[in-house]
Every structure is written in C-alpha cells, then in structure tokens.
Amino acid sequence: KFGVIGHSLGGMAAIDAYEKQKQLDFLVLWSTPVKKNSAFVKHQIESENPFFGAITAETKQQKLEIVEIIHQQIIENEELNTPDIYKKCKKILKDQLGIKKNQFDIYIMPYVVEIVRANYEQTYATADVPVLYIIGSEDKFVSPKNSSELIKEFDNSFIDFRLYEGLNKYMTTGELSGIAREVYHLDDLVKNEIIEWVKSR
Fold first, then answer.
1. Whose CA is closest to 185, among 169, 166, 168, 171?
2. If both were cysteines, with which of 1, 18, 72, 111 could 25 make a disulfide (CB 3.0 to 4.6 Å apart)?
3. Using 50, 70 and 90 to split pLDDT, how confident is the model at 55?
4. Tens-digit pLDDT profile for residues 89-106
5. Model pTM?
6. Other Cβ atoms within 10 Å of 8 Cβ, number
7. How many CB atoms sit inside 10 A of residue 91's CB?
8. Farthest CA pair distance, the chain
9. Which alpha helices (DSSP H) does 36-120 contain, by range?
10. Contact 25, 1 (CB under 8 A)
11. CA distance 174 to 165
C-alpha cells in the first residue's frame, strides 16, 4: 500500500496529490490547514506567532485588517495573476488607507495567492481513504480549534482526528527557537501512534 505523510503545507500538497491521483491508500496529515482561504494566517496573527513577519503593523488588529483586504482581493479576482493582485492591493492599502508598501509587499507572492485560493474542505468531507489527522493544542501556525470543529462537522468516518495536549506544531513541548532538523524530533507517543496507525493499514 502507498500512503503520504504531509506536515503543514506539505499536508496540503498531500491532499492535492490525493485529489489528482486518487490512487493513495492512506494519508497522514500533520498540522495541515483545514479551513479554506488561508484562515491559518489569521490564527498566526491572533496567536502572536513570532515566525510570522510578512505583514508588519503597530497592532494585531491592523495586521488582521491588512490580511483581510489582501485575501479578499485574491479570492474575488481569480482571473488575475500576482502582479495584478499586488496593484489592486497597493491601491487600497497604500493609496487609500496610507499603509506603507513595505508593510505588506513581501506577503503578496505567487505561492501565497495559490494557497489563499486553495479550498480542500470538500476533499476532507468526501475522502474515501483512511486519513490520520494530528495536531498539537499549542500550534500557533494552524488553529487546532478550527481544525477540530470543521473535521467534526464533515462527519467523515474515514478521518481519525487526534489532538495532542501541550504539544506545538512540531509535536514537541515549549517554544520554538528556530526551524531546523532538530524540530522533527517529535514526541515519542505521537511518533509511535503514527507508526502503529500506518502499520494497521
């Protein structure tokens, strides 16, 4: 049997592979965004994730407003490419609201546009292969609350949802000091449960 394990945006890539191939026997999705249109970005701002620096502003509320405007333009203008989206956002943010372009320009990139337009909710709802979805309660990148509520709402018996209390995005404890290979030394309980779940397929 052939399955894919994907962490964070890698989980989105795994879902995309499943959608396109329909030949995977199982998926392990780890701290993967569930809610459509990059709702996880707002979670990163609200949880004051120190690794999110693509939008700068004096207050959390202003960051959220900037992101909301950018996402709205991306979603409402599906036919436009990234440079044209940037022009629209610049006109609103800089010219109309007085927000400096260096506060948002590095955020409006092709991969961000693609991710914001992504919507895998229907795939979660209709997946017909076993899916193990895991997330830590202290994840500051993807909302455990949103993920839990949506997966429960989908009511798909193929999805095995597991929330690990006290663990972060990398299934470890404590604050992340940097992104390096060592962060993948995940909690033994989680590691063993993933292995046992895959073996049971």
1. 171
2. 1
3. very high
4. 999 999 989 999 999 999
5. 0.89
6. 18
7. 12
8. 57
9. 39-46, 60-76, 82-90, 110-117
10. yes
11. 12
Please classify residue 64 by burial: count the beta carbons closer than 10 Å to its beta carbon, then call 0-12 exposed, 13-18 middle and 19+ buried: middle
Which DSSP letter does residue 182 get?
G
Query: Cα–Cα distance between 143 and 109 in angstroms, integer?
Result: 23
pLDDT at 110: 95
φ and ψ at 188, to 5 degrees?
A: -60, -40
Whole-angstrom Cα distance, residue 38 to residue 17? Answer: 19
Cα distance between residue 45 and residue 39, in whole Å: 10
CA distances from 11 to 4, 99, 120 (A): 9, 34, 11
Provide the β-strand partners of residue 28. 5, 132
Give the pLDDT band (50/70/90) at residue 141. Answer: very high
Tokens 């063993």 belong to 192
How far the first Cα of the chain sits from its last, in Å, is 8
> What average pLDDT does range 46-72 have in this prediction?
93
Q: What is the pLDDT of residue 179?
A: 62
Q: Is the pLDDT of residue 182 over 80?
A: no
